[in-house]
Predict the 3D structure of the following.
Amino acid sequence: MATYIPTRAIDHAGHDQEPPSPPQSGGGEGHGDNFPNYGARLRRARLGLICGIVTVSMLFISLTSAYIVRRGLPTFDEVKQGYFRDWGEVPLPWLLLAINTAILLLSSITMEGARRAITRRAALAPVESIPGISLGEEGSFPWLAVTIVLGFGFLLGQWLAWGELKARGFLVNTNPDSSFIYLLTAAHAVHLFGGIVAMLWAGITALLHRPVEVRRIAIDVTAWYWHFMAVLWIYIFALLGLMR
Amino acid sequence: MATTATVHAHAAPQGFIRKYIFSLDHKIIGIQYFFLALTAVWIGMFLSLLMRLHLIFPTASLPLIGEIKPEQYLSLLTMHGTIMVFFVLTTAPQGGFGNYFLPIQIGAPDMAFPVLNMLSFWTTFVAFVVLICAFFVQGGAPLHGWTGYPPLSAVQSAGPGEGLGADLWITSIAIFCIASLLGALNFLTTTLDMRAKGMTLMRMPLTCWSWFITAMLGLLAFGVLLSAGILLLLDRNLGTSFYVPLVVVNGQIMGHKGGSPLLWQHLFWFFGHPEVYIAILPGMGVTSQILSTFSRKPIFGYKAMVYAMLAIGFFGFMVWGHHMFMSGMSPYSAFAFSILTMCIGVPSAIKTFNWLGTMLKGRIRFKSPMLFAIGFVSLFVSGGLSGPFLAQPVLDIQLHDTYFVVGHFHLIMGVAAIFGMFAATYYWVPKMFGRMMNEFWGRIHFFITFIGTYAIFMPMHYLGIAGGTRRYSQYTEVAYLAKLQPIHVFMTYAAIITIAAQFIFVINLFWSIFKGPKASDNPWEATTLEWTTATPPPHDNFNGVTPVVHNGPYEYGVPGAARDYVMQTDPAISSAAAH
């Protein structure tokens, strides 16, 4: 028969007693809520980002499955009274899309520059706060601003690519291939625009003189999201390009 | 038990708007979700009452409404299903109770992302308003059912409700998807990252596990529905042909060709079946919590309960094809979906036997929450047993699109989940509002509702076996179905009585919130963290301190303990004494 030996009186609400030593093992890893604990906040933000990336991935996985299924479907020709494939091959503006891809990859590099710069500043912030300590004037390249410009450049390039498709006579409802090209590129563009908004917000936090740790969190999660956008675009480009 | 003093992420707001309207406090947001779902359930219930009245008085002219035409019947059916599935079964258990109690039960001061939490609720609210607007636009609400099958849902001229009403319906669902994804993201991050010291995953109450797994399902499922909805909107408004083949509507050839309605069915049911578990898993969690508390026994097989829920969630993504046995799918595919579907019976049976094992030889306290939790188990078994029938393609040929299906999913997905919500309401209202609900009227409400729901939905199985098709607005004109009309009459009167009993609930709820006897901090003598804090909880949940957890969530009847329960924050009980 096991015996329960209370080490102290158990009060009804479990309050107002001296705390026992915290358990050595334990899950929760016992973070509790120690604001402003920037390390915990960064980890939490990254965790939320991972969930967001899973969600966006599911969206594009389902669109991909629709793409593959629709591509294989035959349709009925009412004139010839027979089945045929109506997929229709759309000639893509390869050069323009390749330039856009290069712009996006370059923006991913500059975004990584922004992430590393702010990480370095956040790491050195405690040192800078010591009276009499100076790290000197460090030249700071406007990584974030350049990334924003490149992001808009990519969107402009996509817009031009749509214009090119339109000029060649392919609208969203011309055939299933053109429908999916517009759909996938537009869905990516909307998500990428969300990344630009996040970068603008991160820039505003700098203008508002928010603590460098807060700015670091904003830029860090935006950077990982931006890298995901680049990977996603390469996937879409490959899907549209290779499944010809 | 407290360790560290903490600073809350955001101070308690003072103004009415920041405190009660655009609140960042998960408790207020949980209450907002709760009342949104309560509003939605009354609308959905009213629509079902109209349908049932129409089924027995098909030519009657109802006051203020007039005669219900067949297409209006289909609108009622569509809106009833949509409101109930999305804005009640998905909203209240997760958004309502989950939002309120997940952070408290894991010892956190709030959700991980309070602003996202607020946005999630208001986005849900906007989705609800957009959906209701479909009633008032030209042509009225859509006809295509909550499953929205094309080509009916994809061709604007397919029916009077398939114009702007259907666009609003799809838009509402898309907005709801975004809201649910924001919510799921928040639930997962909160559970993984904000547990208090000592709150290991295997010390979490089963309610938290159920909300956590539900959030995982939501994260994976709602994105798929969103993409399906976007394709549907494009088919309807931009002339694409994702879902629509060459169709002739009212003698006119539509501009679409080559699309596949089955593509929608695959995408929809890839979301739709996990959605069933999104609705029912939180009910399983709260039922486990209540059965243990009111049986004064630890939950039977805690780990098995956790793994069973994970298995149910996992299998939930593997079985969507069982909704499509009649679509002409390959018999080999149907066989695979059939086997996988019946596999879900295993974890479901584990849960059921564990619930019964929890009550076995317990010192049961038959309070209102316990009655509804037992009712949940009963309905889960009754509704679940008809599942293996439908899971077999050969039987499904007979039973597909009959009232057998309607009876099945209403019992297990609809009413069982609603009973979970009732149990949660009676159990947690004392903590949420600081007042006890009336026990006598709670019991009256339970018995009428319990008997009433069986009276409504069990006869549907007989109707279905007899070939009674669903979605027909009028059965009196069909010879073989007209003979079944007395069953419809019986079900309608049962529905009227059951709906009347819900007035008892809602009056009891509001009366108790304002006039009920004050609740103590732990009126049920329960063990989890929400019962260690004040009633109602302060803004930061634990009054500036972080609880430390030493025990599992269901330590009842610990040998040698001074009383029959040990709270999670009490000093650690020896492993030999722990259950």
Observations:
- Residues 92-127+142-244 of chain A form a domain with the Four Helix Bundle (Hemerythrin (Met), subunit A) fold (CATH 1.20.120.80).
- Residues 1-35 of chain A have pLDDT under 50 and may be disordered.
